[in-house]
């Protein structure tokens, strides 16, 4: 269950912005003694600490070497069995059969993927995630009558009929916080940090954000990520047991070789599904280009793409540019032109004010 919550947190984060850091002054105070010990004392402390870490590293090396030898002996004895190849083939056949039996197609994108987590499990975990989120941010939620909450609710009401998730119990929560982020918990619980509304610049930009987040739920990305973790962590454990590979090192290799690329692929898929969803809901899909251009300006110091769970903003812009013609066709195939004309006439007749959120 905890692994699913970690998977959901990874998938649901909308922006790849760096975490908040303490100021240099606070960092300095945290590592500086209030007693102001002499330099010699500090040197002695550092020397003792260095000796401790060196001895710990040496002990760890010895342990890993012994484990490697033990694992190698176990593997050699297994390989010497006359039925070794049959056993390996049987394990591979069972594993392959389980994998193939649990392949399914992602809605809209039609990508084939492995998933063993049921919708019921996903929904139950979503309830736990919702409770945790409310405990953390419940005291900073804006009331439903607030203009920012009404804006999010208005955009959501247009997107949901085109999401295929009409049966969910949708709730909107706007958190008064400068963070530029948003996420949707399985079960229809929408959380938007007020800071991202300044980047959205209106309903169309917000539709790109919410469409992306709803798309993660349409594709059940959190469940897929946990399912992949079952296989990949199992491989890491087997590698650790058979060849003596350090489990932490093996997990790091799997993270950079499989989990992070897989997460970036899911983010890209959510961009695609969300773009078509907002277009079908009669929002301007070109607004997604402006949104990601502004996000690129906000995150100039973002880490390289290969280190991140999200694609770079530049890469997202290029992909959205490729998908725009398809999104425009989706928008024009509906009655969006007549709807937009009616809305414009109504606004001019009633002289409705245009709100800016700060």
UniProtKB/TrEMBL annotation:
Q: Where is the Peptidase M48 domain?
A: 149-323
One GO term (biological process): protein quality control for misfolded or incompletely synthesized proteins
InterPro entries of this UniProt entry?
Mito/Outer_Membr_Metalloprot, Peptidase_M48
Q: Which Gene3D superfamilies match?
A: Metalloproteases ('zincins'), catalytic domain (3.30.2010.10)
Q: Where is the composition biased (Polar residues)?
A: 39-52
User: How is this protein annotated for GO cellular component?
Assistant: mitochondrial inner membrane
What does the cofactor section's free text say about binding?
Binds 1 zinc ion per subunit.
Q: Which Pfam families match?
A: Peptidase_M48
Instruction: Provide a Gene Ontology MF annotation, just one.
Output: metal ion binding
Keywords, sorted A to Z: Hydrolase, Membrane, Metal-binding, Metalloprotease, Protease, Transmembrane, Transmembrane helix, Zinc
The UniProt entry's sequence similarity note says: Belongs to the peptidase M48 family.
User: What protein does this entry describe?
Assistant: Peptidase M48 domain-containing protein
Q: Which organism is it from?
A: Cryoendolithus antarcticus
